[in-house]
Amino acid sequence: MGKIKxxxxxxxxxxxxKDNITIATLGSHTSLHILKGAKEEGFKTAIICEKGRExxxxxxxxxxxxxxxxEFKDIVNEEIQQQLRDxxxxxxxxxxxxxxxxxxxxxxxxxxxxFGNRDVLRWESEREKxxxxxxxxxxxxxxxxxxxxxxxxxxxxxxxxxxGGRGYFVASSPTEFKNxxxxxxxxxxxxxxxxxxxxxxxxxxxxxxxxxxxxxxxEDKVEIMGMDTRYESSIDGFVRMPAKDQLDINLTPxxxxxxxxxxxxxxxxxxxxxxxxxxxxxxxKKLVSPGLNGPFCMQTLVNDNLEVICFEISARTDGGTxxxxxxxxxxxxxxxxxxxxGRRISLEIxxxxxxxxxxxxxx
Length: 363
Ligand code: AMP
Hints:
4-stranded parallel β-sheet, alpha+beta, D-amino Acid Aminotransferase, Chain A, domain 1, about 375 residues, Rossmann fold, binds adenosine monophosphate
């Protein structure tokens, strides 16, 4: 648990002019639809932008106010925090916000109201904690190996930190594991200190669905907001090559996310999709109160037994939500109008202000 207590944040929120709230976020990741959605719900918007990276925000015109910083990590500087409080800002966390501001700073130093549960961010960043959430929820996950010596079938090898899949590889035996570690080290993608931290799990042969949910703490309801699949380099380029050439060039592919495709899942799988979302919300309530308020994502693989297997979660808005900036088939079913994840967040904040229940969704 961090040093910033919810009671302190509520004191700051108390002084805010609730008729004049600004929705703010860091200019990266999913900030375009976060701010666009905030405008659609009638809020003022602010972007904390690294010098030189203003172009998309200016061209798409999503921000009323620019707070320019030399480096993203400056967002935790006291003067920037004061600027945010001065404009009654509620900050929406996303993957880059966590990566650049730093988890420890968010927990201990960032005295600005954040949408969602500040404490849950650590649970998605640490693989063992993430696993605990899934195990507690009794959700199907890939089998985990405790040692490379035990590898007896295809496995996926992963490393800690937000690397966007860099350095991940597939192996089928202890020898292949050692060889590939060597290749990744030569490429400069792994260091000796990473090797003990290798996370080895069953390779699930199946199709990838990253499922974006929104848990409304106000309504105690889980919504499916949209789905995407990842477009990853070099693997997705590699598989366009005939198999013979793939063997000839002897390249070890990597899984660096470069973009996303929107997806829909077979309708008969939707009961499972709702079930795992509901289960994760319940386990998060138990393990890290108040739970997964707001957006979260379950990255899954669906095998040919039609089992939905979850290999990763995000406990905040995930990059794949960019595939439905104008709404998805699923968010349309629920809301009957274009509803991005960003807009859904602002709608929740708007409803909370109206009901005088902001304290339920802010930490
Ligand atoms: P991640 O960085 O965890 O999102 O993983 C990057 C990519 O690796 C995913 O998009 C999947 O394509 C693939 N992947 C991850 N875990 C597994 C697994 N257990 N089995 C098969 N593919 C996986």
